[in-house]
Specification:
mainly alpha; 264 residues
């Protein structure tokens, strides 16, 4: 069996799951329960174990992403590469950072990457499940890939926070924004370099293609990408900070309760 034959064999058709239907809600609640359990079990990981966790996640994401690209190449594109799925969207970046961050020296750069993975992973993952139309497909493997992928992002972010490697202070969020800013520059550069390729719009910040995201799509179409892009980036940072702030408050409350209990 050739690679193409194998990929085509896995193209099992399915009826596209409905938003907030049985498949969506079952996966969401079971997935969150599994994430909570794993975070609890891994809350006291050593640095060696931390590397194993993040590298495993990064390797899993990359392997499944390669499968996705092969699927789109052979099944969707019939031998044509689908440039619009170029792997540098906001939800694609963690597969690279999971393989880089744990090997950096402890310090500001590693902390910034960890805080980015917490704030923006949790934000991206939760928003995807709140509006899951982008996760559902007409094939089982693509649908499962999208759901498991985004739940993996939730796990990575939550794990880093629960294990004490991210969200130590509210001021640390500045490092997450710095990482996001650098990634936006890279994404924008890719958009310029691949502007002649159909559908390429990394991070949805233009400048060739309008944003496909609700509300921002209207802003982009009416006022142009140069108006939409800074508004979109600001809103993304604000949404990620809300997630970061909530996580910090919940985490701090539990730590304070634990300290109070020990003192009684």
């Amino acid at each position: 069996m050739t690679l193409r034959e194998f990929i085509e064999w896995t193209a099992w058709p399915m009826e596209r799951p409905a938003s907030y239907g049985a498949f969506h809600l079952t996966f969401l609640f079971v997935g969150l329960a599994v994430v909570a359990l794993l975070c609890f079990l891994l809350r006291n990981t050593s640095e060696r174990a931390n590397k194993a966790v993040l590298v495993s996640c990064g390797a899993f994401l990359i392997i499944t992403e390669v499968y996705k690209h092969l699927f789109y190449y052979y099944v969707i594109g019939n031998g044509t590469y689908q440039w619009w799925i170029f792997p540098f969207q906001l939800c694609s970046v963690p597969m690279y950072l999971c393989l880089i961050a744990p090997f950096l020296k402890k310090g500001k750069v590693q902390d910034a990457l960890y805080n980015f993975l917490l704030a923006f992973n949790l934000m991206g993952g939760f928003i995807s499940f709140l509006e899951p139309s982008g996760l559902t497909h007409e094939y089982y493997t693509l649908t499962w890939h999208a759901f498991i992928w985004h739940m993996s992002l939730v796990f990575v972010g939550a794990y880093l926070g629960v294990s004490g490697r991210a969200c130590k202070k509210l001021s640390d969020y500045k490092g997450a924004i710095t990482v996001y800013g650098v990634l936006c520059v890279i994404a924008f550069t890719i958009n310029i370099l691949l502007r002649n390729k159909p559908g390429v719009n990394m991070f949805y910040i233009g400048p060739v293609h309008d944003s496909p995201i609700i509300v921002f799509k209207e802003i982009s179409a009416r006022f142009g990408w140069y108006v939409n892009t800074p508004i979109y980036i600001a809103c993304t940072c604000a949404a990620a900070f809300i997630i970061y702030f909530i996580f910090y408050k919940v985490k701090n409350r539990k730590n304070n309760e634990g300290t109070a209990t020990e003192n009684e």
